[in-house]
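Aggregate trends can hide what the representation actually does to any particular protein. The sequence in question and its structure tokens are set out directly beneath this paragraph.
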Amino acid sequence: MAIRLGIVDCDTSHVVAFTQRLNHRDIAEDQWVEGAQVVAAVPLPSLVSPERVGPFTEQLRGYGIDVLGRPEDLLGRVDGILIESVDGSVHRERALPFIEAGVPVWIDKPFTCSTEDARALVAAARQRGVPLFSASSLRFDLPVQEVLAQRAQAGRVIGVEAYTPASQHPRNPGFFHYAVHGVEMVYALMGRGCRRVRAIHQEGADLAIGEWDDGRLATVRGIRQGGSGLGFTAFTEKRIFAAQSSRYFYRELLKQIVHFFETGESPVSAEELVEVVAFQEAANDSMAQDGTPVELRR
């Protein structure tokens, strides 16, 4: 029997894209993901993209999804929760009631918009023994997986240059908005261990340089001017990989989400969930200080 999932918030295209792939609706079969289905959704007010809530909710309704009035109405009807708010600053308040109720929770990017909130969610999940998972879809995209699969032949990753569009919104300041994709690609390839970040803000771009404890360096370029896209260059001990995102990043993420709900095991450790937020927070603090290096609050 498929795992029953409930969506909280409907202000992102992810609610439609995920439902199409999990419920096998209006999408090519090579995008289908097995093992779970979206059965209910709760649209809530949005301070980031309020104009999208209505159309996305109606599209879900057209797929046969039950649209409910309150998040608590999902309790007893679903096996897991997808927190889909674009606004990362509300993720803590959205997720905590489900964690307290013992329901496994997936939180879309950004996990939170502060290290304090990230630690609070991780602590609550640990205390209650509730599975918790968050990630950008780019973390599990096929080009990233290829680099990790080639570790035996290519050696460890010694540096990464990631790039991403970087639209801005005050509710998800700086690197917490769309640039989170670049940060997640870096962490997927580099792993934990960033010590400090220095970052520069210009009208057309943001650039963050992370220094790892072992001397490795990684950069995230957030683009707002000129040609754009999602991709990376990974420098390994024996090879250099350069790739742009594939058309399967949602599919690959959803495979991980389904496995998470099936097993209760997150592919991203609690420590890394917090460190990714700490990197973004340090990058924002550094930009506010004209590029002064800022230590991560890991």
